[in-house]
């Protein structure tokens, strides 16, 4: 273990001894790792540490290793650290995330120390039933209301890892010429929607943790948190856990559930606009969010299963409306 970081970890957790128990996962493209640490003499038995090395990685799984991509990654970790330090305390239990304990940096290495969610949210799921999908949508609804109308200072101005301006390499490879020609318009419609919030930006199933009974949900991984329309999170999440056929079958039910939860949370706070206006706009934005993500996938991996009939139908409807 890096000695300076170990000294900081012991201090910030009020520990006498710390030990790396396991590597939970490696970071994308070899930028570091997420580990669980055991603590002695601390009120916390364990913590999770995200170690990031900002040296340029060269082992991207699909060969995307440009300097532009590297700088995007560097910024994403800076954003995530800022999020945990300055924003995360605004998340309540209804949109649970790990508590921020501390951050440390030295040269091009940095560490984020977080609450270990495994004590309450020990499960990671690869398939969900509809009630579990709804539990994640409830988390998203509460998250979106918690940050509704807030300016994303220190975060991505436009959240999501597939944002058009941050993906020029992928954009150049798109073979769908009409979508390519109108990608800027789709991006503009989403970015200029009247009702903006802060979105998670990578709200896929793998970034949700579940309680033992499956009802409690927490979320992790805030590298691409930033401003945007909540539909970007919703469309991306549904595509991460449902097949094309399931999206067709359950779209109406699941969107209704999300908006019911959004309204319930909205009514606990005071805004200077009506909920029905927010809902009307965001429902219109949903196909645009699907089309926007499909644009990214067509440049990144055109054979991916997420490029399916459901998303392509949304692409066609959006293109015909522009």
Question: Which key phrases capture this entry?
Answer:
322 residues, two-stranded antiparallel ribbon, five-stranded antiparallel beta sheet, alpha+beta, globular, Aminoglycoside 3'-phosphotransferase, Chain: A, domain 2, Phosphorylase Kinase, domain 1, 2 domains, single chain
Summarize the structure.
With 322 residues, the chain is of the alpha+beta class. It has helices at residues 3-12, 67-86, 130-146, 168-172, 177-191, 231-241, 244-266, 275-300, 309-321; strands at residues 17-26, 32-40, 46-53, 100-106, 109-115, 197-199, 208-210, 217-219, 226-228.
Which helices and strands appear, and what pairs or packs with what?
Layout: H1 3-12, E1 17-26, E2 32-40, E3 46-53, H2 67-86, E4 100-106, E5 109-115, H3 130-146, H4 168-172, H5 177-191, E6 197-199, E7 208-210, E8 217-219, E9 226-228, H6 231-241, H7 244-266, H8 275-300, H9 309-321
Antiparallel strand pairs: 1-2, 2-3, 3-5, 4-5, 6-9, 7-8
Helix pairs in contact: 3-7, 5-8, 6-8, 8-9
Characterise the protein shown here.
This protein is an alpha+beta fold. It folds into two domains: 3-119, Phosphorylase Kinase, domain 1; 130-321, Aminoglycoside 3'-phosphotransferase, Chain: A, domain 2, CATH 3.90.1200. The chain is 43% helix and 16% strand. It has nine helices and nine strands. It has helices spanning 3-12, 67-86, 130-146, 168-172, 177-191, 231-241, 244-266, 275-300, 309-321, and strands at residues 17-26, 32-40, 46-53, 100-106, 109-115, 197-199, 208-210, 217-219, 226-228. The strands form three sheets. A five-stranded antiparallel sheet has the order 1-2-3-5-4, with helices on both faces. Strands 6-9 form a two-stranded antiparallel ribbon. A hairpin with a 6-residue loop joins strand 7 (208-210) and strand 8. Helix 3 (130-146) packs across helix 7. The radius of gyration is 20 Å and the shape is globular. Residues 60-64 have low confidence and may be disordered.
